[in-house]
Amino acid sequence: MMNWGEELAPLRQRYGARIGIVDADGQHRIGEVLDRAAGIADELRRRGVGPGDFVATMFHNSALAAAASYAVALAGATEVPANPALSEAELAHVMACSTARLALVDGADPLPAIPARLLDVRAIAPRALTNDGWPDVAPDAPSRIVFTSGTTGPAKGAIHSHRGRWTGTLMLRAALPLLPDGANRILLMTPFSHGSSLLTFAFLAAGASVHLLRGVDPGKVLPLLASGAITEVFAPPTVLAKLTAAAATPEHAGRRWPLRMILTGTAPLTPLIYRRAVDCFGPIIRVTYGKSEIFNPITVLDPVETAEVYAQGEAAGDGLCVGWPATGVRIAIRDEAGRALPPGETGRIHLLSPHLSQGYMTLDGPRMLAPGEYHDTGDLGRVDARGRLFLVSRQSDMMKTGGYKVSPDEVERALAPHLPECELIVLGYPSDYWGEIVTLVAASPPPDWLDRLEPALKQLTGYKRPRLFVTIDELPRNSIGKIARAQLRRWIGAHYQLVEQPRPQLRPRLVGVDR
């Protein structure tokens, strides 16, 4: 059996006086966060919530978000973290899949309508956390239901056990190339319902501190980085691109950024964004590969290893190198029939680890993995002779055009260096003639963008060459910043009509549509 009170009380005794979280409300000591968690947990238990119950937590990045998450664990219940920025329909989907009937919220935040009872934790008084009186929980009982980003269909809730949550925090700390302590403060901007919570708990467990921001605002982030108050920052490639663009403006010319490390993940880091980040912040980039189904990281490239990979040009070859498996992670590359492939061959990436989720919560009920069963990520990759994993593409993003399979990532990597000032996305657009048409979408490109891309387009193999070209003001993204390709296809269909022919065309559906 496990008991979260016995796990968290020593943390309060040891590090309670240290600053643990900085957010929009100010500074919060580790002991204050845990005491607020104890007060919330007491209220949950007064309401009859305990082991076997599901409780949603809906918070923007804040100390209250951390306290609420700790509180659900202390009560022995199962937490269902949900991003409050989701739409009303998306939140309803999360609640329906998880069967949660109670949601912990910050009463100061406006939220969409939620089909559940709401408990405003801001109004709950804290009390000193001790290790007495908290319920024991079965290690394999569900502790946290982490919903996928929903890029390939309706979001599913990855079921993490209490043992898996505890083990995942240890694994995350073990994989860090540093030992966080009271001198470390990491800046987190991605939603707390995903990666920010994992890093928050890992840093607090070591007595380090976390600065939580609600979203990415370079006007707030860059002064923080320049101040020296931040030692590390987690910045997915989309965030990193935004920060480096802002840091390259004349007002920041020649400025030194006293950062020790930038941690990145959630999406492939292209060579172009890596070079820009190094030019701005130095060779301090750490690359990881992670999924909602397994507490990060799956693979790791420390800054020195990252620099070596990108200097050798390996990142621009057949896939992007994301490093060696982290402690406890087993990787298998398999073909479509499920047979293991040798090093160097590309196939579907399968994972197994002590902190792998147990299965999914869906509208059709739970779908559990069998003991020892590998998780099929849906990603395509290969392992090289040195044991490093290379991400080639998501299986769901692969296009089949005229009988040929095409990886959008490969086409994007070939074209991006020729138009570095804007984002380029490649996707398959449905076609009766071609099956799918390789389509290039550019976000607010310059007027001569097609002329500048022409040399690179000619270098591509014929069937990999885009046949449709679309511009859009801003690319649609999901709650964690990933490009929402399905939403982008719908946008194209709403604004354009496809003319089917060997040389297909897109015609505006309405006169005056903003293209």
What does this entry look like structurally?
- It is globular and about 70 Å long.
- Helix 9 links the parallel strand 12 and strand 13.
- The chain has 13 helices and 28 strands.
- The C terminus is likely disordered.
- By secondary structure, it is of the alpha/beta class.
- The strands form six sheets. A 13-stranded mixed β-sheet has the order 2-1-10-9-11-12-13-14-15-21-20-17-16, sandwiched between helices. The chain has a four-stranded parallel β-sheet with strand order 4-3-5-6, with helices on both faces. Strands 7-8-18-19 form a four-stranded antiparallel β-sheet.
For the sheet with most strands, the description reads:
13 strands, mixed
**What's the pLDDT, averaged over the residues?**
91
Total number of helical segments? Answer: 13
If strands are numbered along the chain, what order do they take across the biggest sheet? Answer: 2-1-10-9-11-12-13-14-15-21-20-17-16
Give the N-to-C terminal Cα separation: 59 Å
Q: SS-based structural class? A: alpha/beta
**Cα gyration radius (Å):** 23 Å
Tally of extended strands? 28
Shape summary: globular
Helix content class? 25-40%
Strand composition percent: 25-35%
The residue ranges in which pLDDT falls below 50 over 5 or more consecutive positions are 511-515
